[in-house]
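input
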Amino acid sequence: MQINVGCGELRLDGYLNIDRYDDRADLVADPMTLEYEDVDEVRMDHVLEHVAIRETGPLLHHLAGWLRSGGQMVVEVPDMEEMMAHPGPNWLTDIYGVQIHEGEFHRSGWTAESLVDALYLTGVKPEKVSRFRSTHPYRRDFPCLLVVALK
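output
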């Protein structure tokens, strides 16, 4: 099983798409209220920045608990270090979120180092860290980080 947490309108084929705020998800729920086991992959694309710093550790720990041994957690977030060094024309919403509804506020910012550290604390081992510019239509040329971690 593969789970896409915080999917919004961007559902992934072959995944159980979960979102707390968007009714287009397969399951509308707070992931902290859900229990799964033996999951092959937990994916969070541009979700963690919407979670308050004090809540990220418990959330990551909870989601890591869903993984089977050898399962992977894939986390993509805005690259805060790059955004601060080279703010783009949309810097205000890049940093604070579009704030259309409660789920669209940015409550934390991540660098490669802080994201790797947060994942290590949950018991998963970061294996790959990538920095890139997004090609996604909603985030074209947006500086991003991607970390793949294994349980």
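quick obs: The mean pLDDT is 94.
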